[in-house]
Fold this protein.
Amino acid sequence: MTSNPYPLGLRLHGRRVVVVGGGAVATRRVPALLDAGADVLLVAPELTPALRARADAGRLHWVPRRFVPEDLDGAWLVQVAVDDPMAAASVSAVAAERRIFCVRADDRTAATAWTPAVTRHGPVTVAVLGGGDPHRAMTVRDAVRDLLAVRLAPAAAAPSGGLGAAAAPPGQAGAAAAPPGGLGAGVTEAGVSGGRQVGRVALVGAGPGDPELITVKGWRLLTEADVVVADRLVPGLLLDELRPDVELVDASKIPYGPSRAQEEINQILVDRALAGAFVVRLKGGDPYVFGRGGEELLACAAAGVPVTVVPGVTSSIAAPAAAGIPVTHRGVAHEFTVVSGHLAPDAPASLVRWDALAGLHGTLVILMGLKNLAAITATLIAHGRSPQTPAAVVQEATTGTQRVLRSTLDAVAADALTAEVRPPAVVVVGDVVNTLDG
Ligand code: SAH
């Protein structure tokens, strides 16, 4: 009998779902059930480490034994994820008797419910059933996912003349987080200012350079933006894919000195958002690692503009990684310190205790440190770090033009000069530099 299945969205919050089996299939099925808020009862003599971790964390109830019919007491749904067809059939039988829908991983023809292939985009869930062929379902799901990644929101009008209230992308109002620490009062969620619909700002980390290293969420917001304000360090290819009607503001082209330029950027974010636009402030790496993201958040909060922060892959970890340098390694480094080398060690405005850093054994990652590298390394050595400590410089990490220079603390500044290393570059100091080398 091959009637069509009847699609439903089950609202499982707080409702008992029984999963029988603790292996690979259960490991894949349980997270979505937990995400839906289900009260998961896992029945299995043994669990995979991933399921065990969830059980230990109290996210689900685990009964460490084989299935008994009473396990289905109070259940709304049962998922059978065991290999043994006899065991699976006996769970099915109890479920059928009690009129509880039953998903069978081992035999879909014996199941009373099928799990679809799913793709989720913010508030939108697309579930695809392939007529019993899971591969067909996944192929269609992948195609839909790609379509949605290109553009989820309906074409929003560009904020022309300041009053065009561009529709907030679906569901995003709910995701706009009031910043913690008492700023919430100044932040209205998709609020209304002077009778106009206020837009919002997302501070998005673009990652270190490879356009594929932006997060899934960052990419989605970027595709939904009306205005994109981008940094110099943002991977160009990300901007290449913006819709033609998106207003692109190149923050690196703003004249004036750095502090004036920052005020200018803050003003652009606030003005566009108050005019109703969804503004993505795209920043290299992570927005809060020497990225002045905090200042932008404060400016928006002060103007009543809701802000979402999307963390990014920071160059302080990714640049060493791209050069084959783990910032920590068992038995080698149990700490890593990320420090700005923007100011010379003896600069009155410097907040960095280089003398204290010299006493650490672990990994030191220096950003914006090329200009002052000679003074920095000399200071570290003067305060006790061994001159022979391995050091490396990684330029334009994760891009096609990445360069890596390996040296030692006493020689790295001169070597970088000779090799004409240029910004952006990260300097790594510590035994981890040679740990994976050869
Ligand atoms: N928010 C950024 C850092 C901004 S400060 C982040 O989290 O990565 C700018 C400094 O970051 C540069 O001077 C350089 O030290 C470092 N940097 C950024 N991108 C880099 C890259 N692709 N390769 C090497 N260093 C990089």
